[in-house]
Write a structure and sequence with these properties.
Helix content: 40-55%
Strand content: 5-15%
Bound molecules: zinc ion
Largest sheet: 5 strands, parallel
Order of helices and strands: EHEHHHEHEHEEEHEH
Number of helices: 8
CATH class: Alpha Beta
Number of domains: 1
CATH topology: Rossmann fold
CATH superfamily: P-loop containing nucleotide triphosphate hydrolases
Shape: globular
Length: 217
Amino acid sequence: MRFNLVLMGPPGCGKGTQAIRLARRFSIPHISTGDILRQAVRDGSPLGREVGALLATGALVSDTLITSLVQDRLTKPDVSHGFILDGFPRTLAQAQRLGGMLPDDAPLVVALIAVPEEEIVRRLSSRRLCESCRITQSVSDASDPDSESCPYCGGRLVRREDDEASTVRRRLATYAAEAEPVLSYYRQRQGFVGIDGLQPPERVTTALFAEIARQTT
Ligand SMILES: [Zn+2]
């Protein structure tokens, strides 16, 4: 069974973790736009230099530029058995362009991992970053987050600035405004599935496997 997957969901929905599991299970590449941008900068290609200049000034990477990079990535041989896209398409224009890049013989499955805003705020504001080794980790509700030290290196755990509740709410509002047109575009098409992201991660994985099997047989 060959398919291509677009994984969608708000920040903090666990999309990255699920993408890694799915990539392993189906032996297909996990293509995140973050990785594509970093790779392009490292490669120093003309597009990469353009991206590097934009990122250095904090400017947004345009629809056209990110679409070109994804299109280029989808010509690599490792996607011949399918791929998982994470972070793309982010706009309706990108979704429409993606339609034209897909092979005819593999269905596109679009999976939304849905998590209510309150839960995202709770999850993200319980994340801490280790000042020494820079590993991000979640702290349990029971423990006193301010007295915890890093289980990896013993360093001091601090709240990431962009994980403050008010910042999280702003990021979610931005995400929702961007994602809604993309979601309504895919909702009207075959292959769209919604997954309850409130379940434990293992159950989310099981649900994703089941839905993908249902969409591809
Ligand atoms: Zn550490």
